[in-house]
């Protein structure tokens, strides 16, 4: 994964509650098990004027010129609810989003974000709305993962995130890589355990 340490970007507001994974990437847009080729289907039901079509709806926020190149998405409460499909996060990532800020997330979606290099940042609703207000005039938003801060102008908003999740994002490491950092301790444990319970390690 690409490390996420600091990021400065516009923040696109999509302040709807209960945006589920089928809205993020409709099932009809999932034509393979690959992570590639999903960006066109991101929010397809809202981005395009007809189901299955590709005629742009100019009123949808992602289709507005101000949204071009944005890497931060603002959402409502319970973002990513519904099914556990990881394609939703893959679509967001391929489109270019590195951060989603919302008052709350579905736990499964939140975990999928972290495992795929997207920071799911929880901030109070009024704070998310304050950040969203800066979209019209192009006010940039700064994400500082080491200090757990979101900055916009002179305003600083603190967030919390579990240490392991933050480490995975900052270092671009997955859970297996973090576990392998303790290889010496793990091997020492198995050596001690084998001496005490040798029957556990008998070959078939």
TrEMBL record:
User: What EC number(s) are associated with this protein in UniProt?
Assistant: 4.2.1.33
- Listed Gene3D superfamilies: Aconitase, domain 4 (3.20.19.10)
- A Gene Ontology MF term for this entry? 3-isopropylmalate dehydratase activity
Q: Does the keyword rRNA-binding apply?
A: no
- Reactions catalysed: (2R,3S)-3-isopropylmalate = (2S)-2-isopropylmalate
Q: In which pathway does it act?
A: Amino-acid biosynthesis; L-leucine biosynthesis; L-leucine from 3-methyl-2-oxobutanoate: step 2/4
Q: Does the keyword Acyltransferase apply?
A: no
Q: Which GO terms describe its cellular component?
A: 3-isopropylmalate dehydratase complex
- Domain of life from the UniProt record: Bacteria
Q: Where is the Aconitase A/isopropylmalate dehydratase small subunit swivel domain?
A: 2-125
Q: Which GO terms describe its biological process?
A: L-leucine biosynthetic process
Enzyme class, spelled out: lyase
Keyword terms, alphabetized: Amino-acid biosynthesis, Branched-chain amino acid biosynthesis, Leucine biosynthesis, Lyase
Q: Report quaternary structure and partners.
A: Heterodimer of LeuC and LeuD.
Recorded family membership: Belongs to the LeuD family. LeuD type 1 subfamily.
Q: What does this protein do?
A: Catalyzes the isomerization between 2-isopropylmalate and 3-isopropylmalate, via the formation of 2-isopropylmaleate.
Kindly give the PANTHER family that the UniProt entry links to this protein: 3-ISOPROPYLMALATE DEHYDRATASE SMALL SUBUNIT (PTHR43345:SF5), 3-ISOPROPYLMALATE DEHYDRATASE SMALL SUBUNIT 2-RELATED-RELATED (PTHR43345)
Record-given protein name: 3-isopropylmalate dehydratase small subunit
Q: Which organism is it from?
A: Novosphingobium guangzhouense
């Amino acid at each position: 994964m690409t490390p996420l340490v600091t990021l400065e970007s516009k923040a696109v507001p999509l302040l709807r509650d209960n945006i589920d994974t089928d809205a993020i990437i409709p099932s009809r847009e999932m034509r393979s098990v690959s992570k590639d080729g999903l960006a066109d289907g991101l929010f397809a039901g809202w981005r395009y004027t007809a189901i299955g079509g590709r005629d742009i709806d100019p009123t949808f926020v992602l289709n507005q010129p101000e949204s071009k190149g944005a890497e931060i998405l603002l959402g409502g409460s319970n973002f990513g609810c519904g099914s556990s499909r990881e394609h939703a996060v893959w679509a967001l990532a391929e489109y270019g989003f590195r951060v989603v800020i919302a008052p709350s997330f579905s736990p499964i979606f939140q975990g999928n974000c972290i495992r795929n290099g997207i920071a799911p940042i929880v901030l109070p609703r009024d704070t998310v709305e304050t950040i969203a207000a800066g979209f019209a005039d192009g006010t940039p938003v700064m994400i500082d993962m080491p200090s757990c801060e979101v900055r916009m102008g002179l305003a600083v908003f603190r967030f919390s995130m579990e240490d392991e999740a933050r480490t995975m994002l900052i270092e671009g490491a997955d859970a297996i890589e973090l576990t392998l950092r303790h290889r010496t301790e793990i091997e020492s444990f198995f050596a001690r355990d084998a001496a005490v319970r040798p029957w556990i390690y008998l070959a078939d």
